[in-house]
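Protocol step 4 of 5: obtain the predicted structure for the target chain.
Materials: sequence only (see below). No template structures provided, no constraints applied. The aim of this step is simply to have a reference model before the mutagenesis design in step 5. Sequence pasted as it appears in the construct record:
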Amino acid sequence: MEELGLVGDLAVVALAALVGGALARFLRLPSILGYLAAGIAIGPHTPGPSGDVAEVGTVADLGVALLLFTLGIRFSLRELWRVRGLAAVGGLTQIGAMIASGLLIGLTLGLDGEEAIVLGAVVALSSTMVAFRLLEGRGEIESAAGRVGVSFALVQDLAVVPLIVMVPVLGGDADDLPGKLGLAGLKAAGLLAAVGVVGMWVVPWVLGRVTMARSRELFLLSVVAFALGTASLSFEAGLGLAFGAFLAGLLVSESEYAHQTLAEVFPLREVFAVVFFVAIGMLIDPASFVEQPELVFGIAAVGVLGKLLLVTVIAVAFGYPARVAITAALALANMGEFSFVLAEEGVNEGVFDADLNEAVLAAVLLSIAVSPLLLLGQGAVLATLQALPGLGRLLRQRSEAFLPEREAMTNHAVICGFDQAAHELASALRQRGFSYLIVDQDPVVFRHLRAEGTPCLLGDPALPAVLEQAELERARVLAVTLADTAQGQAVVAAARLINPGLDVVARGGKLESHLRLREVGAAEVVHAEFEVGMEFLRHTLHRFGVPSQEVQALLARRRRDYYT
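Step 4 output (C-alpha cells):
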C-alpha cells in the first residue's frame, strides 16, 4: 500500500474496522472494542498488513473535530451556563484529586517525582471522544448524565493548556512559567473573542447566502470550513482541536441553521470517528501488557477507578441522583487523546523514558476498552459502590418534592423525565387544566420547575420510594419519556407494583426494547424515529393528493404492523 499512500492506508483501516465492528456486533459488544482491536491488528507491532500511524492519526484528528462540532450543535450556551458551578468547582476538584492519585501510584510503582506528577496529569484526563460516543449510544447526550459528562470533559480539555506548559518545567526548563501561562491565557481569550464575533455575525450571514444558492455541497463546505478553521485556530493557541470544534458547534447551535448543519455533517462525522478509534489501536504494542504488567494495569486502574469514584461523589454532592452520577462517571472512566499528548510531551522533555511511554499508551487503550463494558454493567457498578463503607451512605438515593397543590394530586398524569417530548405533553395538559407531576433526576431542571410553580419531584423515578411520592396509586396515566430504555423498564416495573391498573405509555429505543417494555406493563410504547417517519409519510402523501381518510388508514395499518 506504500504506493497509494494515504488512500491505501484508509483502505486498510476501513476493511479492518468493518471486520472488527461486525465481529463486535456479533458478540454483542460495543462497536468501539471492535475498532480498537482492528487498530491493533493493522498496527506496526503486529504481523500482517499495516497502515501508516502518522497519516491515519491525522485523519483521526478530523474525526475528533467533527464529533465535537456536532456535539456543540446539540448543546447550547444556556445549557452549559446552567451547570457552570459543577463544571468549575467539580471539574477542577476532579483534576486536582486525580493528579494527586497518579502521583501517589507513580511513587508506589517506583517512578521519580517528576515522572509521577506527569503521570498524574495523564490519568486525570478522559477521552472526550469515547465519553461522548458512549453517552450518545445510550441516547443520553442531552440528559442530566450527558450534561454532567460534558461539563467535566470540557474542563479537562481546557486544563490541558496549563498541564502542557507545566511539563517542560518538570523537565528542567523553568524559565518564566507565569509568563507562559499568561500568554496561553491571552491566546485563549483572543480565540474566544474572535470566534464569538465570527460566529454571531459572519457565519449566519455566509450560511444564509449559501442556503439561498440551494447547493448542498456549498453549505457542507461552508460548515466544515468553519468547524475545522476554528479547531485549527484553537490548536495553534494551545487549546487543542477538540475545544475549538466544540466552540464552533456551540455558536452554530444558536443559529437557525443548526438542524440542517447537523444533518449534513453527521454521516461524514461517523466515518472519521471510526478512523479515530482504529488509530488509537494502532499506537499500542501488545507486548507492553506482558513486559510491564504492573505499570500498565496500575496506571489503567487509577485512570478508571479514580474517575469513577471522584466524578460520582462530586456529582452526588452537587445534588444529582446516584444513577445519573454513575452514568456520567462511567463514560468518563478512561484516558484518551490528550493523555497521549501529555505523554508525548513528557518524552520530548526528557521526563518520560520510552518504556514508561509504552506502558502509558497500553494503559490508555485498556481504559478505553474497559469503559464501555463497565457502562453495560451500570446497575452492578452502582450496587457495588453503594455497598462500600461510608460511600454507600453518600450514594443513598435521595428525593426532594415540590407539590404546591398536594391535595389536588389525584387523577393526574405523572411524567418521568423532562425532555422536549415531556415539555410538549406538560404544556398541553396545563392548557387544558389537567393536573400533572414531573419526576426528573437533574437538580437544575428541578429548581427551574420549582421556580415556575410546577409540581415536581427530584429523584430517580426507577425507585419505588420516589414513585410513591408521586401518588401513583391515584394517578390516571404514567408517561415515561426517558431515553435510557433500561431505566424506563425499571420505572414501568416499579409503577406496576404500586398501581397494577395504571395506564402507562413509555418511550422505546431499539425495536427489541418494545417487547421488554410491554412485558413489564407498558400499555403503549412510542418509538421516536418511527413516529418521525410516519409524519414524513403523512405530509408527503397529502402533497401528492392522497385523501386524508386514506392516509389515516394507511398510517393506522403501518402502526399496527410495526407495534405488534
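Step 4 remarks: The chain has a mean pLDDT of 81. The beta strands are 400-402, 413-416, 436-440, 456-458, 477-480, 503-508, 524-527.
Proceed to step 5.
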